[in-house]
Amino acid sequence: MLWKEIWDNYKGRILGVAFGILLGFLYVWIGFWDMLFFALLVFIGYTFGRRSDAKLGSFIPWGELREWLGDRWRPFK
Q1: Which positions, given as ranges, span the membrane (predicted)?
Q2: 23-40 burial, b for 16+ CB within 10 Å, e for fewer?
Q3: Chain centroid to CA 16: how far?
Q4: Which structural domain, as residue segments, surrounds residue 25?
Q5: Tens-place pLDDT, residues 30-48
Q6: Which of 1, 2, 9, 60 is 20 to 30 A from 49 in CA distance terms?
């Protein structure tokens, strides 16, 4: 009962601290730049997954890009 109340009230803080500890261990084990690159890949994967779940479509507006290129370069018409 007490743990459920703590989790309900402080879930974001608990997860934030756990994530910080995880990133700290990654920094110690594999180095700063490797950890940042790993975090970037996780963020990209999360972003694509979130867009897919929300049915937002492609991250890159391919139709607009093709139209823009078609106006400037003949092979894309």
Answers
A1: 20-46
A2: eeebeeeeeeeebeeeee
A3: 15
A4: 1-73
A5: 888 888 888 888 888 888 7
A6: 9
Residue 77 predicted with pLDDT over 70 = no
Question: Which DSSP letter does residue 57 get?
Answer: -
User: What 3 state SS string does 15-41 have?
Assistant: HHHHHHHHHHHHHHHHCHHHHHHHHHH
Number of neighbours of residue 51 by Cβ within 10 angstroms: 13
Chain Cα centroid distance, residue 14: 20
Residues 57/51, Cβ–Cβ less than 8 Å = yes
Check if the beta carbon of residue 47 is closer than 8 Å to that of residue 58.
Answer: no
Question: CB-based contacts of 45: which residues, under 8 Å, 6+ apart?
Answer: none
- Structure token digits, residue 33: 């730049």
Report the distance separating Cα 40 and Cα 43, nearest Å.
5
Residue 50: left (phi > 0), alpha (psi -120 to 50), or beta?
A: alpha
- CB of 39 closer than 8 Å to CB of 23: yes
